């Protein structure tokens, strides 16, 4: 096989001038602007994750801060095992004179094609190695900063442990420095309609679901006064609402704070379909009246609520450190998953029947695809891409199709 230097599709930063393939992205301007902003905020290092504020597996263009800053696009629609949850696509670390990207081995070749020579690629996937890099790159007394609304509680704690006693400070800044620099070039927020799922596709009404969660609150030994939902699929499931803010996922940006007597739903309410709004507000005022608040107000509202004599139940897997940090420790009831996530996981007979019917429809598409492959492959007519397009078209032709659940992986061997 040719030596690495003969390969022209990956970067070579050892030559002068360095060799960059046409796929590499020039990040000099982004980095210079970010470093200016870091200086203005008195920050020596800034951590940029590839997650969004809801710990989504897939993210919208608007939340692709790592991609914009580094040129590295990470996983385009691929499930990442949760053991690498903090990485998802990668983690970037920027100081005044260095920039590094951590990603796991599936992406090393891709990174070498997309990164320019401003970036060092770190071929390890554990937070300890990021910690060691920080200790080397940031002098004692330095601040390492991040946006607390983009980090899980676990990831925050891991960084905290890695820096503990090192004389360096982990400093949360609520203004996202990448967003500040990205400015009006950043893609706009989603604007498509948020709609009610037709009744024939729901296992129970949203009021029944809310009543069930309130019953669990009442039976819990700690008697929580509220449940906080950060996972987008939790709110979508609870209210039988759907949207398409994120590729391959029928969800929309939202938070929910549910108490025994009130329901606060934080979202861009101008996007709500008229029928959906009617369904949520048919019983106002009252315990089944959904108060619609702006998505951006969630943390302020939570801060205000947390000042009362309350206990807030949440699932730590989907709650960011930013929201978690608002609630005093003694007012928290923590589980890995919220009661809504657990209720959603248990399908009632109607939901089971709907699932089976969906699988039958999908099986038809797959069988059609396999027959087509048997006919076409011997003719040399199919590559992986055209195969993926064909199975997507077959699925789309099935009744009730709302698109694939991930980018089709259509070949093997």
UniProtKB/TrEMBL annotation:
One of its GO terms (molecular function) is aminopeptidase activity. Residues 31-175 form the Creatinase N-terminal domain. Keywords: Aminopeptidase, Hydrolase, Metal-binding, Protease. The keyword Protein biosynthesis does not apply. It comes from the Eukaryota. Residues 1-22 are annotated as: Disordered. The keyword Hydrolase applies. Belongs to the peptidase M24B family. PANTHER family: XAA-PRO AMINOPEPTIDASE 1 (PTHR43763), XAA-PRO AMINOPEPTIDASE 2 (PTHR43763:SF4). This is XPP2 aminopeptidase. It comes from Zapornia atra (Henderson crake). The lineage of its organism: Eukaryota, Metazoa, Chordata, Craniata, Vertebrata.
């Amino acid at each position: 096989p040719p030596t690495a230097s003969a390969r022209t599709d990956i970067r070579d930063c050892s030559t002068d001038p360095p060799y960059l393939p046409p796929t590499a992205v020039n990040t000099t301007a982004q980095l210079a602007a970010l470093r200016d902003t870091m200086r203005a905020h008195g920050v020596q290092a800034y951590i940029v994750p590839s997650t969004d504020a809801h710990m989504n597996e897939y993210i919208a263009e608007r939340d692709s801060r790592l991609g914009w800053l580094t040129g590295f696009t990470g996983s385009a629609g691929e499930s990442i095992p949760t053991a690498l949850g903090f990485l998802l696509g990668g983690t970037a670390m920027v100081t005044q004179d260095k920039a590094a990207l951590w990603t796991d081995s599936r992406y090393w070749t891709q990174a070498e094609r997309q990164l320019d020579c401003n970036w060092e690629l770190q071929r390890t996937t554990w937070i300890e190695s990021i910690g060691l890099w920080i200790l080397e790159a940031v002098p004692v007394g330095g601040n390492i900063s991040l946006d607390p609304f983009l980090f899980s509680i676990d990831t925050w704690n891991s960084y905290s442990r890695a820096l503990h006693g090192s004389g360096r400070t982990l400093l949360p800044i609520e203004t996202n420095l990448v967003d500040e620099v990205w400015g009006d070039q950043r893609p706009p927020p989603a604007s498509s309609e948020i709609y009610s799922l037709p009744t024939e596709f729901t296992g129970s009404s949203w009021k029944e679901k809310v009543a069930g969660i309130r019953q669990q609150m009442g039976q819990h030994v700690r008697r929580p006064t509220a449940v906080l939902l950060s996972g987008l699929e939790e709110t979508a499931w609870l209210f039988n609402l759907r949207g398409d803010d994120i590729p391959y996922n029928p969800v929309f940006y939202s938070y929910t704070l549910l108490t025994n007597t009130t329901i606060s739903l934080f979202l861009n309410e101008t996007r709500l379909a008229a029928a959906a709004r009617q369904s949520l507000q048919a019983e106002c005022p009252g315990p089944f009246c959904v108060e619609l608040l702006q998505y951006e107000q969630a943390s302020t509202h939570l801060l205000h609520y947390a000042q009362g004599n309350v206990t807030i139940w949440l699932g730590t897997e989907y709650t960011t450190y930013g929201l978690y940090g608002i609630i005093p420790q003694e007012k928290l009831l923590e589980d890995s998953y919220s009661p809504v996530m657990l209720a959603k996981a248990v399908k009632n007979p109607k939901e089971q029947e709907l699932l089976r019917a969906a699988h039958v429809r999908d099986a038809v598409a797959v069988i059609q695809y396999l027959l087509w492959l048997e006919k076409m492959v011997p003719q040399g007519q199919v590559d992986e891409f055209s195969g993926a397009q064909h199975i997507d078209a077959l699925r789309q032709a099935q009744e009730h199709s709302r698109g694939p659940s991930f980018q089709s992986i259509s070949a093997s061997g």
